[in-house]
Write a structure and sequence with these properties.
This protein is an alpha+beta fold.
Amino acid sequence: MRKNQSSPALAHVARNTYFKAIQSAKRVNWSQFLADVDGRSVWDARKIAAGRTPDRFPTLENASSPTKINNTLLQHFFPPRPSPPPPLILPAFKDVPPVLPAEVSCALRKSSKTSAPGPSGIAYSIWMQVHKANERLLPSLFTLLLTHGYHPVAMKKANGIVLDKPGKPDYRTPSSFRIIVLLETVSKILERLSALRLASAARSLSLLHPNQCGSLAGLGCFDAIATLTYEVRLLQAAAFKVSTLFLDVKGGFDNVCANKLATILAREGVSTYLVAWIKSFLSKRQYRLIFQGAPKVFCPVAVGTPQGSPISPLLFVLYIASLHPTLPQGLTISYVDDLTITVGLDSVRSNIRPLQYYFGTIQRQGADLGVAFSVPKTEVIHWRTPKDRSDVSFAPIVINDILFPPSQVVRWLGYWLTPTLHFSNHFLRHLALAKASFTTIRQLSAAGKGLSSWCNSKLVFGAILPILTYACDLFVPDTATLKKLNLFWHVVLRLTTNCFHTTALGALYREPSLPPISSICKHRRRSDAIRLVCAPSVFNPATARIPESVPTWDQGRSADDHRFLLRGSSKAVHLTSLLGPAVNSAKHLPLDSLCHEVSELIEEIPILPLASTDLVPLPLSRIPSVTYQALRAPLLQSLLADWLDLSPPVPLLYPYSACLTPHAFTGVPRFICGRIHQMRSGASYLAAPVS
């Protein structure tokens, strides 16, 4: 009886011992894994720490089996539409430039080895080895396909991964899911080569609208936002009330009609072999949906331009190039499928009718192309100057019988815009996102164990700094916002170096070789300002609006720039000398103040460099010999100078200078590296000699 009474207690002890041993083994294994993490596997460690939400099984109404779910999803995302019949005879086009091995090598260099392959399972790394073994094989294959304007059926097959959209209240409808398309890698190599040729033809034939900033080499969100804020501030300086309507193309890539796109390209003079290949590429495609229990059969779909293809964004912007009306006192700017219409008149209410008129115009033009706008995503904002003391206007706008009141905060291209263009709201939102990312990284490093200082610096550069300083290349955070950014940045630096809270801030910046936030912001502004003055004005709408006194590569300016409204006005802003006093961005146009950031660098280099020679279809003799990399050293020197000026003073006995390269000892284990940082900074439990 005594033996039976002790059995439950012994079983309880044995069970606890068993689970504690498992937990202990997991901790030891995790600590050993973190200790062995290097520069390549550090992102795998972050992915493990972040965890992964299990994929949600699509439970759709009126679909009780995987086959019915598969058909319902295909019907929703790829509704049937007429497709051009394949040609019965494949003629060989003349004067087709052959694909060179160097072109294939360039396309492979831009491809990631970790990219998920298509249905065949052949990754980019396999094609890299094939091209290395025989550099004539792929070029000869691609040349033959382009010569006949044909895209093989086997290269049109793709996998569609069904994923749920986070934050949806109900997952019983197909709209609560999204499909990630995985194309064949060999097909994407050919698509990238064709995209380069089509982009060159589009530039030379002026097929792209000058205010389209997306999916084009050398352009990005910065250029679209810089152009928008410049025009808003310019019209406000001319004493006009400014309003902007934000639109979103519904469906985007899925609504491109292959026949209409081929007609547009052929009419504008694009090479016939490219038009034939694009038409073949967009027709007769097959997808296989992947989810739990899916039948995994290929089904014919009409997809417009396939998602994930290197050439799809370019085809889309060429397709909607006509949806940019010319405004007498305003501007239309677009970034891929996001469009804005800006109007400036005497009052806010006067802006409503023109906005409605121009929306109706592009809506009718879009209907002819089969393109519609997502009306629920439409937003309108009435801009104000910071010193405007008039009553705030809440004048709404009616779009398709739906009333839209003006928004107080609009998120466009990742930028949070307010009516006064005060960006504390934007930086505080991104500060919250950076803190969320930091919470994940913090799990990888305890007080004396975990990732090394070098791995933590790599994570900070890749996962925290881009979020924290997003938009600092154009907008300057105010003093209160900058203080909050600095407080968080100090916490990040202490985690990176394992230093104490009593460490002097001057030494805290120098130990991990990470400058202050204010220095990084100024460096980002200089880098983008250099990129602007080095870009061709015919391709970059922001470059086409900088002051004429700034020496640019081609001295061209935009035809729809409204700077002429300030001529003869007391509010005129002109840069008569680049070496003049610093410009206050709150009192001057954004692009004008941005150009002053690089005035000294521009004066030092007599011939401005070009960001990319691929952007300009001109003879090589007209391209400057100085490359963009020539300004890298001066920019880094300016960053170090700002670091020394803006950083707090270092301790009296701290002999180490500021540098941008990590120290040699940052790769040692975290405990030892932390002790070295503490001893160098003079805040340590251990005594450290001055030497």
